[in-house]
Amino acid sequence: MTAVKPREAIWCVLLASTLLNISCSNFQETSAVSHLQPCKAAEGPTDDFCGTLDVFEDRQAKTGRKIALKIVVLPALKQKSAPDPLFFLAGGPGQGAAEMAGELAQPYHRIEMDRDIVFVDQRGTGKSNPLECKLGKDADDDDSTAVMVDRLKSCLATYKDKADLTKYTTPIAMDDLDDVRAFLGYSKINVYGGSYGTRAALVYAQRHPDHTRSVILDGVAPTDMRLPLYMARDSQRALDLVIRDCEKDAECAKRFPNLKERLNALLARLDAHPQKIHYVNPKTGMEKDLDVKRVTISSLLFASLYSPLTVQLVPLLIDEADKGNYNGFLALGTAFDPLSENMAQGMHFSVVCSEDAPRIEPGSVEHEAAGTFLGSQMADLRLKVCDFWPHTKMDPAYYSLTPSDIPALILSGEADPVTPPSWGQQVASQWKNSKHIVVPANGHGAWGTGCVMKLMAKFLDDGSAANLDTSCVEQVKRAPFFLGPSGPDPMDGGSK
Q1: End-to-end CA distance of the chain, in Å?
Q2: Do the Cβ atoms of 153 and 121 come closer than 8 Å?
Q3: C-beta separation of 214 from 463 below 8 A
Q4: Best exposed site among 19, 73, 196, 253 by fewest CB in 10 Å?
């Protein structure tokens, strides 16, 4: 079946509007994109459609400041496409979904063949009144907690005339999303949520069940998760799986013996006596002196556990750092910088400080972090910010996982450092029409792994997971560990 390209669709509307007797099969002016315009290069992919919808910041009062929500729609490519689109909800909290449309267009091509894909910058993110705050310049910035807190306080002062930070919680944002659905003319939608986006998807389905056809949850972070309480515990679990798999691999075990003990000893040394090094940033070429502390290594190790591609390097990086060479960890850190650029820290704390922090009891972070490589410092920083960040009181019912019969495909990475499979199973136990898939050896976010995208498309086509054959997931294996700078090959010189 032939496809109608976006540009052809535009001409179709223009010709119809001049009453020329030309038929434009299955593309009508009443479709979602008739409310939008072709994207300009600065807005999104130029063969897609962009626009905004104004909503009141204070939805209850329906007066005062308005927020222009940025919308990007990737229109379905088939002439006879499904009427229900896929709405993509980003993670963080703080990522702008519409900002990600360009990079996700190709991997989501299979889904776009059959249905529109809609990206909306959630209020406070992307281009929807973004609550931005630049916390650092480079991955090797050596900022203390006090400096980071001061930066956030400075950003908070700039929001005074820009936003009421108590109006940026998930339930309010999901009511915005339903306004976008109605504005674009969709009766029912499918919702994909990744990481924090899974919380948003669950909240949308709970508040707007009549408009929710199905839900895909990828790396589940439900409303009762209490971010960042379990960050250290769950990342230790992921690291233990990496070390276990290295020990089971003959070459990795031989090349990197006693990995766990050596890491613990390294972190203890740096905790007692930070090591001063002279360092050349591989991205900027700038030379600087740097105090390598425990948190320097533990935070970069934590970030490296997110992706199977960076996990391949973990044993080698620990080995090199134990020998006093931190260049590998620091160089890897520069790769994470672009990820922080699409992260609105102000919105992040508006969510966490209202929805999570008030339910974390004093001393519980230290208890959960005891004996872990990450410790409590990263979580302590977030909670310290919540001491002064404006927040609102949430309805206690918000934290109850409501049973649902909405079809749900639930994805978990076996080695996810922040949303391990136990959270996905918790939701699956309450949603009777759900299927929970645990992807072997995978980290945070499963959609790009193996056959998962194919399964997502099949689930959306069927509107159900009941007959979904997930056996292909069993073929996913952990990628070989790097044994030296050149890769997994034991003959690359790394074992000498």
Answers
A1: 58
A2: no
A3: yes
A4: 19
Phi, psi of 51 (to 5 degrees): 180, -175
pLDDT in tens, 67-119: 999 999 999 999 899 999 999 999 999 999 999 999 999 999 999 999 999 99
Structure pTM?
0.90
The model's confidence at residue 43, banded by pLDDT at 50, 70 and 90, is confident
In 237-373 the beta strands, taken as DSSP E runs, fall at 275-280, 287-292
Burial classification of residue 240, based on how many CB atoms lie within 10 Å of its CB (0-12 exposed, 13-18 middle, 19 or more buried): middle
Dmax (CA) of the chain: 80
Is residue 23, in this structure, part of any structural domain at all?
no
- Characterize the bridge pairing of strands 189-194 and 212-218: parallel
Distances (CA, A) of 477 to 187, 249, 308, 367: 40, 13, 10, 34
Residue 255 is assigned to a structural domain of this protein = yes
Q: Are 435 and 465 a contacting pair, CB within 8 Å? A: yes
What is residue 435's predicted lDDT score, i.e. its pLDDT?
Answer: 98
Residue of 401, 405, 441 lying closest to 424 (CA atoms):
401
Q: Is the same domain home to 382 and 250?
A: yes
